[in-house]
Model the fold of this input.
Amino acid sequence: MANNFFFRALMRHGTFDEYHFFLANSAHRNLFMEKHSPFLEEVGVTSKIRLLDRLHLMSLLRQVDYTVFHQSDHISLFNSLCRVRNSLGARVPVTSFIHSVSYQQHMGKYLEMATCGSSKNDAIICSSNCGKQALSNCFSSLQSNLRIPTANVQLRVIPLGIDQGVGRVEKSASRRELKLNDNEIIALCFGRFSDFDKMDIFPLLQAFRRANPNGKPWRLILAGALHEPTYLEMTRLWTKALKLSDNVTFIVDPSDDAKSNLYGAADFFVSIADNVQETFGLTLLEAMDAGLPLLVSDFDGYRELCSDEVGIRVPTRWGRVDQLQEIQAVMDERTAHRLAAQSLSVDVPSLAKGMETLFSNQQNRQKMSAASRTRFDEHFDHKRLIGALESLWDELKAGFEPVDTRPDPMSMRVFDTFGHYVTGFTKEDDVVVASGFGTMLRESGNPYPLLTGMSDVVDWSGAVSLLAAAAKPISMKNLLNSATGQSWKTWYTMAWMLKHDLLERVESV
Done:
């Protein structure tokens, strides 16, 4: 969701002349256009979009003076892209966002980052200071335990954002759409139903029971995407056991319109994130955009989003268990996250007191509501944040200094690693000729079937030209020189033609 929000914001508010997307294959490019074409036309940037095959990355890095290569996350391709950049001496910074930073497997990537050739003008953009500190802690752990340098990359804090006005829907109309009572005070908790990577709702139900023992016209709406059906069923049953069913409403997998109506219908927003998978809290931005006071756990990026003017933060405590920390590396991620979260408590009495305050004090809600919307407008509107990102990219680009071009120590180089598997490698002085089958196919004008994605490398019209040039025996070098395309693609096409009996070696005739 955060990446989709960012993509749409960049297309709407960015000022670049062109945007180059290096995608995996033709199917990926088709999917991109299928998903995004209507929006790109709506905002008038279709002419700025170039969808390129990833195989062309190196040649374009030689030709184009890119401002930045930005990644959707700091794990998948960040390190590899730095190495490719370095191998070509390109002067272009690499940046990425963090999202979750709590997965054990990330430590291997952080170790790699220390040797990948990242530069002081590459940057990982952290959505919160808490997220930045967590990443810094990981780097420090590697440095002290392995005595290696810290990754040479900047950690910069720029929060996420959303487009202004997304959650602003009139209250009475929203309640009519959702069939909610106009006379009730409504608290909205919006977030995926998942205890292991979002929050455990049980303590919230306990607090609601404390805050409303006599069944006042107060309603708690629990809404969001269904990630854990079993957990949702447990939550429903516990709501019933606490005799809260008349005052708690579940809305599962709401549509975009229903989501807007939920924010419009609510009087305040509550979220008690307790999971280290969380680093920021986009739903809090949506709530502030809708002008809702916040009641949230004093946890991670929530702490930075919820100032005293816009809401109430509920204290959190962690029961440290070192055995859990030591065994985490061999546990599955779901269980590890669940056990860590279940040892972290959001103070239930304080949460109940906060709920009672916001349910019962209309004047307080109104004051926080105005402050909430003002804070959003001043700090988290997408137009402002895209401007901040572009300023960062310009800064990194202006100060960029090339990094040494050492070979990639983490790359499994397929031909070097597995070269001993084959009888031998094709050489430039090998002599080939068009096979009888290849000659027949060329003369018929019919194409040879290409597997999915192969058309990105093998151009059949180019293969036909090579068949014509190989009508008589010719060395691989001379056949290569007869073509006009990129030499590496031509050499690959020749190897492919040998595989498919379009060319044959003269010595095997």
Q: What stands out?
A: The longest strand covers residues 218-224. The first helix runs from residue 2 to 13. The domain at 171-380 is CATH 3.40.50.2000 (Rossmann fold).
